[in-house]
Amino acid sequence: MILCVHLPRFELAVAAGGVQALAGEPVAIAPEPGARCVGEVSGAAEAQGVRQGMQLGEALARCPSLGLLPADPLGVAEAWETVVGSLEGIGAAVESPAAGIAFFCADGLLRLHRGLPGVIDAARRGGQEARPARPARIGAGPSRFCSMAAAFAARPRRGAVIVRQREAARWLSSQSVQLLGFREQTAELAMPLHRLGIRTLGAVRRLGRDAMADRFGRAGVLAHALAGGWDTPLLPRSVPERLEEAMELREADSGQSLERVLGVLIERLLANPGRRGRSIRAMTLSAKLVEGGTWRQSIPFRQASADAHRMRLALGLRLAQLPAPAQELRLGVESFGPAGGDQQNLLGQAAAQRRRRLAEAVGQARAAAGPDAALRVVLVDPRSRAPERRSVLSPFQG
């Protein structure tokens, strides 16, 4: 049996600072820079015809009093990591395709928590770790998609919805076709099917596999299988290893000063003992914005590396995408690569040997006198009137 833990309007609740701010107010998450569609919307906005993914102009036409909240992807990621960590604390191997939805198999936890009701209670307590969000809704079913449909059908104070294997196909037949929109591979099918007058998953099933394949290709085949109760196996995540550096920018909120701060964060991450000599395969660059809200992007590298110069070139291009001046910049490791890595040093062999010797000397100095034994001064904002803001100390890489 697979359990789904669903926290409705999770991103909106985090952006608003709590569910109390959503009570009776028609609000939505503002479109991202370069986009025109609103994000999650409150219940009051839905009552006036506003839907997630709707064009901003149409949303304001239907609800002139609609309030727009800046997105907070950094806060959402931190709050959801707390929830997933709590679920993993009860012994669950969690798969989380998006913030607000988590899946795990309950079969191995039945004896630990004294049956399925005990597992559901433990999962509900884990879902309450996200204070700004609404109470968790839990569904159980024989597949990932079936358990998600059950969680969406659950209601507060009415307990979890449990769908057994023998009744899964019949129960799914009465559910809305809009559930396909919450699956990445079938998200683009929900609107066309709705426009064709197909309202339920049972209608999708009756169309037949061949008809869905002819019209929608591989996504149509998957949608037909999901409507019948079949789904792919769970892919639980591996527990991430957190490694992050942050710096307040103060006056250094744009231009070359921001690039210098990025360079300092890169050098601090590479000098962090938690890296243990490994290369880095992907990083997360995020910022707290002066005007409110946050910004966050994941940057995978073409090749795992520990070269500060390469990282500065790859990450520096993303700084131009900041939607507003930033007051804090964060850089974290998303995934590690093998130890060392192919650096492809452009210097000659003699220069490379000198750098290796210097790096070894720096490592010995840090081993004897601590991590702050070898530092260098980096000019961050040389035009600042406050002397202490003009420069910072950064680990010396050799």
Strand order of the largest sheet: 4-5-1-6-7
- Specify the biggest β-sheet: 5 strands, mixed
Number of strands: 13
Would you list the SSEs in sequence order as H and E? Answer: EHEHHEHEEHEHEHHHHHEHEEHEHEE
Q: Which structural class should the secondary elements be placed in?
A: alpha+beta
- What name does CATH use for the topology of the largest domain? MutS, DNA mismatch repair protein, domain I
User: What is the helical fraction, as a range of percent?
Assistant: 25-40%
Q: Which range does the strand content fall in?
A: 15-25%
Q: What is the CA-based Rg, rounded?
A: 25 Å
Report on the architecture of this protein.
With 398 residues, this protein is of the alpha+beta class. The chain has helices spanning 10-16, 43-47, 56-62, 73-89, 116-127, 144-153, 168-172, 190-195, 201-207, 209-216, 218-227, 255-271, 308-319, 349-369, and strands at 2-6, 27-29, 67-69, 95-98, 101-105, 137-141, 161-162, 244-248, 278-289, 294-305, 326-339, 375-379, 391-395. It is 36% helix and 20% strand. A five-stranded mixed sheet has the order 4-5-1-6-7, with helices on both faces. Strands 8-11-9-10 form a four-stranded antiparallel sheet, sandwiched between helices. A two-stranded parallel ribbon has the order 2-3. Helix 1 packs across helix 4 (73-89), helix 4 (73-89) packs antiparallel against helix 5 and helix 9 crosses helix 11 (218-227). The longest helix has 21 residues, at 349-369.
